[in-house]
Amino acid sequence: MKLFVTIALIGILTAGSGFAHDFTQGSIYLDHPMIEEAPPNAPVLGGYLSIQNMGDTDDRLVAIESSAAEKVEIHRSTVTDGIARMQPMKEGLVIPAGETVWLDNGMHAMFVQPVERYRAGDEVPATLVFEKAGRIDVTFKVEERSTGSGAAHEGHGQ
């Protein structure tokens, strides 16, 4: 009976760790970095997460680095005269003190020329570089493409 209880407790304690997918350094909290699975030979992958600045001063995400792609850019989607465009945010992205910024379909990490095809369940290492918080190593989990999401990426990179 003790063995059963021990095994059950280990299962309960480790089950939650599979769902916990966040990273913290200093006043920066990163939640659920993910990439949607893309078709074979996709020239780009969109990376998404939320960034919370729990500090008293603004910080800035200045770069994202990863050996999983030729380069990674911070992008913003805009619509002008009914035409959608994605533009690199060369100045980086300000994370205001006490606020959360979501990198979703509007703003996102763009993994350009991935080195391989990533499938649901894969993990993609990256480093987010902040002006004040410094370098934070993260893992983007690749998830199945959900219906209707990622539409902003169709045709991007072509």
UniProtKB/TrEMBL annotation:
Organismal lineage: Bacteria, Pseudomonadati, Pseudomonadota, Alphaproteobacteria, Hyphomicrobiales
Record's keyword terms, sorted: Signal
Family annotation (Gene3D superfamilies): PCu(A)C copper chaperone
Superkingdom of source: Bacteria
Keyword GTP-binding on entry: no
Segment forming the signal sequence: 1-20
Pfam families linked: PCuAC (PF04314)
Coiled coil: none
InterPro entries named in the record: LpqE-like (IPR007410), Lxx211020-like (IPR058248), PCuAC_sf (IPR036182)
Matches recorded under SUPFAM superfamilies: DR1885-like metal-binding protein (SSF110087)
Annotated protein name in UniProt: Copper chaperone PCu(A)C
Xref: PANTHER family: BLR7088 PROTEIN (PTHR36302), COPPER CHAPERONE PCU(A)C (PTHR36302:SF1)
